[in-house]
Specification:
six-stranded parallel beta sheet; 16 strands; seven-stranded mixed beta sheet; globular; 2 domains; Rossmann fold
Length: 327
């Protein structure tokens, strides 16, 4: 019997349960996929905890890669035996899933399934942030929080390729070295320094053009202070908790600032947009121009441990669940 990780009630990692689950044969307009690897992401922890509410019980996970086992009627663009990856198929912490073709992308021959599963959600997020949420221009100075994390390292690389000067923040010397390897021009230990004050020093008092903030509650105020007048704060995560309501007048007081809270899924809602971001990421990893770090892997049954490590910020790269035979 096929198995999957269920959330039967909202809560901590301990609520994750391995249960028998077979999605069955593909219906019209569907394909059945044998999952080789599933990505572990903060959005999964938000859904598990109830921060992003979902009706229970449900199978967790959004991202993965595997091989198509069977295609349903009306599917002509995909075939059995084809390797595919995805970043928005609910229920991906499973040995088998059913998916619609328009949510899948072909995996290049040069790329194995583990790297494909590790690359897609964080890679598309980073590419989207650097090119769609904000069109990065040569000469801009930007601040990236949690720059040693999986998304952070990829974002630093895309920003550098676009010509930006990148300041990264992190919380240890080991993570600082990873930030520099990714290409950060300056690194701030925000557990030791007032990062907003240090940004002002590094920019001769001007501030940065853009802040990319995936941390949320604990960095939000400092991120506003680190921006130049009419700068942009891109809040794309809340690893430290959600940002409380605040008076919009503060944006005026700090220099007519802009704040946006993007979701990747709004930027890949159209098939053409999905392919643009996905193909850019997979091609760059395949040819070696984008470096991807897989930090830790776990068997499916240890999904709770993966969540604990992610939420404790023990990771310096991607966390993966390895499922069954891998390609």
């Amino acid at each position: 019997m096929s198995q999957a990780i269920f959330v039967e009630r909202h809560g901590g990692p301990e609520v994750l349960q391995l249960r028998d689950h077979d999605p069955g044969a593909p219906g019209p307009g569907q394909v059945r996929i044998a999952v080789h690897a599933a990505g572990v992401n903060f959005v999964d922890t938000y859904q598990r905890s109830g921060l992003y509410p979902r009706s229970t019980p449900f199978v967790l996970g959004m991202e993965g890669a595997g091989v198509i086992e069977a295609v349903g009627s009306g599917v002509s663009e995909l075939r059995a035996g084809q390797r595919v990856a995805w970043a928005q198929v609910s229920g991906s912490y499973a040995q088998h899933i059913l998916a619609k073709p328009d949510s899948l992308v072909a995996v290049p021959q040069a790329l194995d399934s583990e790297r494909a599963a590790a690359a897609l959600l964080q890679g598309m997020t980073a590419h989207c942030l650097a090119h769609s949420v904000h069109a990065t221009r040569p000469g801009e100075t930007v601040l990236v929080h949690a720059a040693a994390g999986g998304t952070g390292q990829l974002l630093v690389q895309f920003l550098k390729r676009a010509g930006a000067r990148v300041i990264g923040t992190c919380s240890s010397d080991a993570k600082a070295e990873l930030c520099r390897k990714a290409g950060a021009d300056e690194v701030i230990r925000y557990d030791e320094q007032d990062f907003a004050a240090e940004v002002r020093r590094l920019t001769d008092g001007r501030g940065v053009d853009v802040v990319f903030d995936s941390v949320g509650q604990s960095t939000f105020d400092g991120s506003l202070k680190a921006l130049r007048g009419r700068g942009l704060l891109v809040l794309f995560g809340q690893a430290s908790g959600p940002v409380p309501p605040f008076d919009l007048q503060r944006l005026n007081q700090h220099g007519s600032l802009y704040v946006t809270r993007p979701s990747l899924f709004h930027y890949v809602a159209q098939r053409a947009e999905l392919l643009e971001h996905a193909n850019a990421v997979l091609a760059a990893i395949s040819d070696g121009s984008l470096q991807l770090r897989i930090d830790r892997t776990y068997p499916l049954a240890q999904a709770a441990e993966a969540h604990r490590d992610l939420e404790a910020r023990k990771s310096t790269g991607k966390l993966l669940l390895l499922i069954g035979n891998r390609g």
